[in-house]
Input
Amino acid sequence: MKVAIAQINPIIADIEGNKKKILDYIKKAEGNGADLIIFPELATIGYPPMDLLENTKLVRDNLNSLKDIAQYCKDINSTVVVGYIDFDYDNPPMLYNSAAVISRGEIIFRQNKTLLPGYDVFDEYRYFSPATEWGVFELKGIKIGITICEDIWAALSKDNSRFLDLRGYRLDPVKILKDKGADLIINISASPYIKGKRQIRMEMLRNISRELNLSIIYVNQVGGNDSLVFDGNSFCVNQKGELYRHAKGFGEDLLVFDHNIGNELNSEVDDIDDIINALILGLRDYMGKSGFKKAVLGLSGGIDSALTAVIACKAIGPENVFGITMPSVYSSSGSVNDSYALAKNLAMRIETIAIADLFEQFKRDLKAIFGDLPEDVTEENIQARIRGVLLMSVSNKTGAMLLSTGNKSEVATGYCTLYGDMCGGLAVISDVPKTLVYKIAERINKDAGFDLIPRAIIEKAPSAELRPGQKDQDSLPPYEILDGIIELYIEQKLSLEEIVAAGYERETVAYTLRLINMNEYKRFQAAPGIKVTSKAFGIGRRIPLVKRYNP
Amino acid sequence: MKVAIAQINPIIADIEGNKKKILDYIKKAEGNGADLIIFPELATIGYPPMDLLENTKLVRDNLNSLKDIAQYCKDINSTVVVGYIDFDYDNPPMLYNSAAVISRGEIIFRQNKTLLPGYDVFDEYRYFSPATEWGVFELKGIKIGITICEDIWAALSKDNSRFLDLRGYRLDPVKILKDKGADLIINISASPYIKGKRQIRMEMLRNISRELNLSIIYVNQVGGNDSLVFDGNSFCVNQKGELYRHAKGFGEDLLVFDHNIGNELNSEVDDIDDIINALILGLRDYMGKSGFKKAVLGLSGGIDSALTAVIACKAIGPENVFGITMPSVYSSSGSVNDSYALAKNLAMRIETIAIADLFEQFKRDLKAIFGDLPEDVTEENIQARIRGVLLMSVSNKTGAMLLSTGNKSEVATGYCTLYGDMCGGLAVISDVPKTLVYKIAERINKDAGFDLIPRAIIEKAPSAELRPGQKDQDSLPPYEILDGIIELYIEQKLSLEEIVAAGYERETVAYTLRLINMNEYKRFQAAPGIKVTSKAFGIGRRIPLVKRYNP
Output
């Protein structure tokens, strides 16, 4: 049997565009002799469509799209598996996250998703009802069962807190399909990238194959949709758990191959490389899918804006990236010079606007209200906000999207100015902790073969340069310690006591958790950021703003 | 039987503070001879705790709080019903939204919530498992069943799209409890205020009582929690469907009374009055619960900022409200004078900062980049953002929370400037359509007995005053039409064709829906707003930013 993995990058709700792409891939795969062509989860509509699903027209359009695809398949030999939304608006009206199997113009088989994730960025219970029936279909003598994303994660899992129906009973779709005689399990997914998950995914499916004597074809969506980046990286394992085919990471791909035939491939993963690619794809698609060609960003002379500039240049080309350095009276001359050196290395445009005159004018105009009150954080924020207004002005005038450059450590502790450096359409590295920013910067320089990011930018002590001699580490714990605490609190959800027990100083932990909790209001108004860790700030973390919480 | 309704205003996650409040109410109610004291849904922790529930410490603290409450009840005669989170961290680990019945120090009965809402602002499937067992308990010879919020809405409902378990079967907890012999149904709720819901709620419970021959005691949470305002308005109906007791709207209350005894009360509702009270309570609690005493806002001379100022003065006292008028070169003299007249009527402080000098300085500094490009919306936004920076500066320097003043019609169409007039900790009227803003203003003046909001502010044509002669209606459809389309699209989720079929001009509908869809990114970064309609922008409406959607 000849199989085609059609790893496509859909646009959310673009029913016509996605259909055209699906038909193009079918055409190509059929031309290559594919017996079975497999598309990702919700391929007709893109994942995640979120509350757009409440509009019945969109759901009906998706079903019409499926009909058109079936119609196209009337005269071809290939069988097609495509993710879509099934629905029944009769009594009762339920939506299903579903897979259709199309052959000779007919939908010959359907399988609904069983396990509906409702954690982190997922809200599938909000929209879908779970499968209550399971089956297999046969092609070229092979019995095939279909699972959808989360469904396959239950197999062999020792985690007792997931994969339950609402009454607490374990559900394992793979086991059900195996019992029904499946030889091959297809998994169609829209599985967002997070650091380390790709390795876990491959190991898991290799184990399932081996232990249950099943071959598995895993077809993942690719592309950036808002804060989520789907990494593609579709692959196949045979019944011995050997990885024998692997599609591209972070790009569309069509892979046509003989089922279960091929030598074992290397399955090693380079996390830093993956994160860089995730950021590039996330930025490229966020801009491209919303029609933006050009980006603008502030270059402070620090490592965060430097890394953001590198990612932007790689994503949309340096000719489309415009950096502005906006020195204050407290800025070192290095801040400007280092930014120019960076821009030269990247071959991107850079201009300078000094903010001293505007700062003085704001202080004059506020004098009537402020009187002789001493300067404080207010004046620091004014400078950050002047920069925000200047950058947004360039964005408005030139049609370039403003990129925000804050990292996760800053966003976590509120070491950033709302409506100042937080301005932007996309916060490119807001889920990248500072310590990881350094690692990525070193890798970028290593890959470039020279200090693409000037050494001075990497080595200077981090500073907002909003008052004389200011350094980040005057206000924050050392970044190695800070990032460790943030990971234990945000990603692992430990309590203060548990973090102290893990070896951190109580006072530092208490201070950090206080900063994190009191700055929820800033993050509520933050730009979307590209998720690369298991828990990013944003839509997957919903914390009350007003609370009295003792962590 | 003597019953006490303990309509409390908890603070989210404030386990100690909420416990103290619960014990205070038990003390008072017992002093008044109550046999049965009833608290709202999740009284120990406040509703909605959202993802804080992922921290196991908080859930454990809530259970310890329940133990302390039980311990306190050891030596009193009253039986206490209290909403809390029940959990079992053994295998499998499930959380339940639950009610405990406490008598003589023991938890003598528990009832879990059956129907877990997962629409709009609700995400209960994300956290909780549903009840699978139901029972009644007996007190003073009366058989009592407990329902929790959504549970009671299934009774008699003809809506086939709600009240289903995940397999699509109808569940009706009231019917189950009636079949188990219940004479009295208690409903503990955390039911957020929206326009018109109070009347529906009362009519529904009166019908259930009458048709099923049950008496009902409905106990609702009160208070503002972020964008949600819980209106209280707890009440009781006897088996004949007569409303015979009614607790305060929009305030804490303890109501002690003889079960099923009392004359029928008037059940009329004044929607405008309710909305005003919801906005006042929402603002007061958002500020008070997060420790803010003072507010600052920009006064433009328009009706939106005027209404926001009135609400603020009523919520926290005029001595704590500071208005700033920031005329541009395009502002009419009326804008400033009218704002001063309003401030005088309200007895609140007002100051003026003209923005012309800053505007000129920004234009000078941007000249090097902008060259001779003509002025456009960029320069309008610069002025709005100068105001944002000035207001945030006053907020930072004085510790006053900045209030954003945009209405729902503006926020829907993006007729507002991100990081400009959208700046603020709370968007007080962002769920109030412009046509409703006028109605509320007229009511406020009628209640005041004079033009508290000066007539000139109500009668002038709405304008952002960011370019010469600018009027809202140059860019937007007339507000009566615009608000009609917004309601059909956002609240009723109709398609373009359906809205046209409802009698609106196609071109206007298409233009309005395009504006709504293209401005999702602005709303993503908006301050939380107080929800008063069935569908507010914010946490209850989750729309992808990047999409290609044909409504």
About this structure: The CA atoms of residues 197 and 534 of chain B lie 9 Å apart.
